[in-house]
Amino acid sequence: MLAKGLIVSAVLAVLLAACGSGGSGSGSAISTSHMDAPGKTGAVYKANCVSCHGSDLQGRMGAQTNLQQVGARMTEPEIVEQIKKGGSSMPPFEDRLTDEQIAGLAAWLAGKKKE
Protein backbone atom coordinates (compact mmCIF):
# COMPACT_ATOMS: atom_id res chain seq x y z
CA MET A 1 0.00 0.00 0.00
CA LEU A 2 1.18 3.48 -0.83
CA ALA A 3 -0.20 4.76 2.46
CA LYS A 4 1.93 2.26 4.37
CA GLY A 5 5.05 3.46 2.58
CA LEU A 6 4.22 7.04 3.39
CA ILE A 7 3.64 6.14 7.02
CA VAL A 8 6.99 4.39 7.25
CA SER A 9 8.63 7.44 5.74
CA ALA A 10 6.85 9.72 8.14
CA VAL A 11 7.72 7.52 11.11
CA LEU A 12 11.34 8.25 11.08
CA ALA A 13 10.69 11.80 10.05
CA VAL A 14 8.91 12.33 13.30
CA LEU A 15 11.40 10.31 15.29
CA LEU A 16 13.13 13.55 15.82
CA ALA A 17 10.44 16.09 15.31
CA ALA A 18 12.31 18.48 17.56
CA CYS A 19 15.34 18.37 15.30
CA GLY A 20 15.22 21.91 13.98
CA SER A 21 18.93 22.38 13.36
CA GLY A 22 17.81 24.21 10.25
CA GLY A 23 20.50 22.65 8.09
CA SER A 24 22.38 25.91 7.79
CA GLY A 25 25.60 24.01 7.26
CA SER A 26 27.72 24.86 10.26
CA GLY A 27 30.47 22.72 8.79
CA SER A 28 30.62 20.35 11.75
CA ALA A 29 32.77 17.32 11.21
CA ILE A 30 30.69 14.91 13.26
CA SER A 31 30.13 11.51 11.72
CA THR A 32 26.54 11.30 10.56
CA SER A 33 26.53 8.29 8.25
CA HIS A 34 24.43 5.31 9.24
CA MET A 35 27.51 3.27 8.37
CA ASP A 36 29.03 4.19 11.74
CA ALA A 37 26.25 2.31 13.53
CA PRO A 38 27.46 -0.68 15.55
CA GLY A 39 26.76 -4.26 14.50
CA LYS A 40 23.30 -4.94 13.15
CA THR A 41 22.02 -1.48 14.05
CA GLY A 42 23.13 -0.10 10.68
CA ALA A 43 21.15 -2.78 8.85
CA VAL A 44 18.07 -2.03 10.98
CA TYR A 45 18.45 1.68 10.23
CA LYS A 46 18.89 1.07 6.51
CA ALA A 47 15.85 -1.21 6.34
CA ASN A 48 13.51 0.92 8.44
CA CYS A 49 14.73 4.50 8.77
CA VAL A 50 16.76 5.64 5.78
CA SER A 51 13.75 6.47 3.59
CA CYS A 52 12.73 9.30 5.96
CA HIS A 53 15.93 10.13 7.79
CA GLY A 54 18.43 9.73 4.95
CA SER A 55 21.66 7.80 4.57
CA ASP A 56 23.57 10.48 6.47
CA LEU A 57 20.85 11.11 9.08
CA GLN A 58 20.25 14.44 7.33
CA GLY A 59 16.48 14.02 7.12
CA ARG A 60 14.57 13.68 3.90
CA MET A 61 11.20 15.06 4.96
CA GLY A 62 12.08 18.34 6.58
CA ALA A 63 14.13 19.47 9.54
CA GLN A 64 12.15 17.36 11.98
CA THR A 65 13.54 14.22 10.34
CA ASN A 66 17.18 15.23 10.77
CA LEU A 67 18.87 12.91 13.27
CA GLN A 68 22.42 14.21 13.02
CA GLN A 69 22.31 15.72 16.52
CA VAL A 70 19.29 13.99 17.98
CA GLY A 71 21.21 13.04 21.13
CA ALA A 72 21.47 16.73 21.99
CA ARG A 73 17.68 17.05 21.89
CA MET A 74 16.48 13.74 23.28
CA THR A 75 17.64 11.27 25.89
CA GLU A 76 18.04 7.60 25.07
CA PRO A 77 14.76 6.69 26.86
CA GLU A 78 12.95 9.44 24.94
CA ILE A 79 14.32 8.07 21.67
CA VAL A 80 13.17 4.56 22.63
CA GLU A 81 9.68 5.90 23.32
CA GLN A 82 9.61 7.85 20.04
CA ILE A 83 10.57 4.78 18.04
CA LYS A 84 8.09 2.55 19.88
CA LYS A 85 5.08 4.86 19.98
CA GLY A 86 5.74 7.19 17.06
CA GLY A 87 4.15 10.60 17.13
CA SER A 88 3.22 13.46 14.87
CA SER A 89 3.85 12.07 11.38
CA MET A 90 6.00 9.15 12.56
CA PRO A 91 4.28 5.78 12.89
CA PRO A 92 5.02 3.47 15.81
CA PHE A 93 7.61 0.74 15.31
CA GLU A 94 6.96 -1.33 18.45
CA ASP A 95 5.22 -4.00 16.35
CA ARG A 96 7.83 -3.95 13.57
CA LEU A 97 11.10 -3.94 15.49
CA THR A 98 12.24 -6.02 18.44
CA ASP A 99 13.05 -4.40 21.77
CA GLU A 100 16.70 -5.22 21.07
CA GLN A 101 16.61 -3.46 17.69
CA ILE A 102 14.91 -0.41 19.20
CA ALA A 103 17.41 -0.30 22.07
CA GLY A 104 20.30 -0.51 19.60
CA LEU A 105 18.95 2.34 17.49
CA ALA A 106 18.24 4.48 20.56
CA ALA A 107 21.68 3.92 22.08
CA TRP A 108 23.40 4.79 18.82
CA LEU A 109 21.22 7.83 18.10
CA ALA A 110 21.55 9.14 21.67
CA GLY A 111 25.28 9.46 20.97
CA LYS A 112 24.60 11.82 18.07
CA LYS A 113 25.37 15.14 19.72
CA LYS A 114 26.91 18.42 18.72
CA GLU A 115 30.66 18.29 19.11
TrEMBL record:
Gene3D superfamilies: Cytochrome c-like domain. InterPro entries: Cyt_c-like_dom, Cyt_c-like_dom_sf, Cyt_C_IC, Cytochrome_c550/c551-like. Residues 1-23 form the signal peptide. Residues 22-113 form the Cytochrome c domain. It holds the Pfam family Cytochrome_CBB3. Transmembrane segments: none annotated. It comes from the Bacteria. PROSITE patterns: CYTC (PS51007), PROKAR_LIPOPROTEIN (PS51257). The keyword Cytoplasm does not apply. Keywords: Electron transport, Heme, Iron, Metal-binding, Signal, Transport. PANTHER family: CYTOCHROME C-553-LIKE, MENAQUINOL-CYTOCHROME C REDUCTASE CYTOCHROME B_C SUBUNIT. This is Cytochrome c domain-containing protein.
